Amino acid sequence: MPSFSTHTLRCAAFGLGLGLLAAQPALAAPDCGWRDPGLRAVLRPGASFEWRAGGPPERLPAAPTRIALWGDSLTSSRDFIDAALDAAGIDRAGVQPSFIQAGIQVPGLRLPLKSACATPGWQTGYAHKEMRKPSWYGKGLLGMRSGTPGDSILLDFRAPHPDARVKALDIVFEKPQADGSLMLAIAVDGGEERFVSLSRSAATRLQIIPGAPMAALRMRLVSGQLTVHGFEPVYAQAPGTILDTFSVPGGTLRAWSYVDERLVAATPDDYGLVLVQYGTNEGASPRFSRSDYLAYLRSNLGRMRKVYPQARCILIGPPDRGVPGATREAALKYAVVHSQIAAAQKQVGQEQGCGFWDWQAAMGGPGAAARWAGMQPPQMQKDLTHLTAKGYQLSGRMFGQAMLTDKH
Alpha-carbon dihedral of residues 84, 106, 355, 320, nearest 10 degrees? Predict the structure, then answer.
């Protein structure tokens, strides 16, 4: 089983500003119930739903473009990818997810939701932090586990616009034992709770079909234990583009060592484009060596390509990184490592049928981090590792123009 960490109550509103996780201003419902003022407009006392356990995933409407992004904190705020979509001429008003990570409690992660809430008993597991095998993660690389009766999750799907509604939702989950007991209570749009028994069932998918397209769903654990691996919404309005973002702050490509390929393959993705953005956290290792990184990259990228062999693939190298207060050679300590990572990604990408975009080179090469920090307004934060929101947006535009336009 995955290892999990405990978090306090987390209620989050995911806006379109800086892309940072922000606490909701009103925690009037610490049980993640329907009393939050922001939910008043969607409450329908007579709201109902049907459910079924197992069965094939709900079929998604066709979308001309289907994109998946895996990475670390540099892309988890969505500033980079949103700017890239804009540069490629993709209307963000028509962008919808087909999979939402179980990442409500993860600071710095912006989910494609208006808001979300999870009570204190939920514990978050991270695939990139795992040390034990076998371990069970889906493509979201996160899991939320609880065995505390009353623990709840509430999701508000009204994004990217307030009229967004969901006509079906699959909850991807796991029980410690397939024949173990599990009872949930679920309600949609403030309607009456219904008990959902998943005892003595080997299903790993719970399908919710509301009587009318829903804005929000609340799930409460009544008894048993479960791990939630993610949510698969089907929106009432057909998408122009499917974008699934799986970036996790602190993430590394080693997370793919702990992905259950059968679980990932069980979802009807058919991504046309997969983006893989890692390297900064790998490059921070004091024992970094290019030869070891090449072997690591071949192994973990190979696992991802085994799952998505037909998709167009682009590796996104790490941006430049500086050392605050250092001078001369010491200031380029990480910049040199990032250049080695970029070269390795370009090489392995060619081996495995992936394109490559050199973020460090696009910034101006080694030493660019300090120059970007000195711009007005600053494009790099003072740590010379993370960019500012404007820096991510500038980088995203450069990436979109270089790699996502029709000429490519």
Answer: 80
Q: CATH 2.60.120.1360: which residues of the chain?
A: 5-57+111-234
Distance of alpha carbon 28 from alpha carbon 181, whole angstroms: 32
Q: Which two tokens stand for residue 105?
A: 């409690």
What pLDDT is recorded for position 265?
Answer: 63
- Between CA 35 and CA 132 the distance in angstroms is 40
All CATH 3.40.50.1110 domain ranges in the chain, comma separated: 272-403
Whether residue 134 has a cis bond before it, omega within 30° of 0: yes
- ω into residue 176 within 30 of 0, thus cis? no
Q: Which residues contact 407 (CB under 8 A, 6 or more apart)?
A: none
Mark out the alpha helices in 136-285 (DSSP H runs).
Answer: 261-265, 280-283
Report whether the peptide linkage leading into residue 160 is cis, meaning its omega lies within 30 degrees of zero: yes
pLDDT value, residue 16? 31
Model pLDDT, residue 61: 63
**What pLDDT shows up at residue 31?**
83
Task: Kindly report, residue by residue over 222-274, the tens digit of the pLDDT.
Answer: 999 999 999 999 999 989 999 999 999 999 999 999 998 777 765 556 899 99
For 367: left if phi > 0, alpha if psi spans -120 to 50, otherwise beta; the answer is left
Contact 226, 173 (CB under 8 A): yes
Stretches where the chain sits below pLDDT 50 are 6-9, 14-28, 407-408
- How many angstroms separate the CA atoms of 102 and 228, rounded? 6
* CB of 68 closer than 8 Å to CB of 274: yes
**pLDDT of res. 96:** 94
The reported pLDDT for the residue numbered 193 is 97
Query: What does the alpha-carbon distance between residue 306 and residue 99 come to, in Å, rounded to a whole number?
Result: 20
Cβ-based neighbour number of residue 129 at 10 Å: 18
Q: Could you give the dihedral angle defined by the CA atoms of residues 349, 354, 355 and 361, in that order, rounded to the nearest 10 degrees?
A: -30
Count of CA atoms in the C-beta half-sphere (13 A) of 295 = 4
* 272-403 is classed CATH 3.40.50.1110: yes
Confidence at residue 29, expressed as pLDDT on a 0 to 100 scale: 56
User: Right CATH number for 5-57+111-234 from 2.60.120.1360, 3.30.465.10, 3.30.365.10, 3.20.20.70?
Assistant: 2.60.120.1360
Measure the CA–CA gap between 29 and 230, rounded to whole angstroms: 23
Question: Which amino acid appears at position 296 of this protein?
Answer: Y
